[in-house]
Design brief:
Distance between the termini: 26 Å
Low-confidence stretches: none
Order of helices and strands: EEEEHEEEH
Shape: globular
CATH topology: Thrombin, subunit H
Radius of gyration: 15 Å
Structural class: alpha+beta
Strand content: 35-45%
């Protein structure tokens, strides 16, 4: 869909952006990269995937195409149903001017029920944030 400024939106799903004060963390399992469950700050979420940020020093061997497993999301009790989900790293933004690296991931093998629950959460959050402006 193209807006009035000529920008074409390529996203298939609406997303909700979390502020720093929301403090939404994802606990991730990184097979072949780390033996530990690691927490990263989630920046946004949609039914198609999520974006998270981590310090450059913690990025290690994460690369495009890697499979990650989101064990759970902390900081948003209404997202407890988003757990044990497989993701694929689609892009990495690593700008030397910044301390952190952003990573965009796509959900894999998600049931239609969970997609609908995430969509409903996104709509509710967007409405709540819009009404608080």
């Amino acid at each position: 869909m193209q807006n009035d400024n000529g920008y074409t939106e390529r996203r298939q799903f609406k997303r909700v952006v979390f502020s720093a004060s929301d403090n939404v963390l994802g606990e991730f399992d990184l097979p072949g990269i780390s033996d530990e469950i690691i927490s990263f700050k989630i920046l946004d979420l949609s039914a198609g995937g999520l974006r998270f940020v981590l310090p450059r020093d913690d990025c290690g061997d994460i690369d495009v195409g890697n499979k990650l497993f989101l064990q759970k999301i902390k900081g948003m009790s209404r997202l407890e149903f988003v757990s044990r989900m497989e993701l694929e790293v689609k892009w990495i933004l690593d700008n030397p001017a910044f301390e952190n690296v952003m990573i965009g991931c796509e959900f894999l093998n998600v049931s239609e029920t969970v997609r609908m629950q995430i969509d409903q959460f996104v709509e509710t959050e967007a409405t709540r944030k819009y009404n608080n402006i």
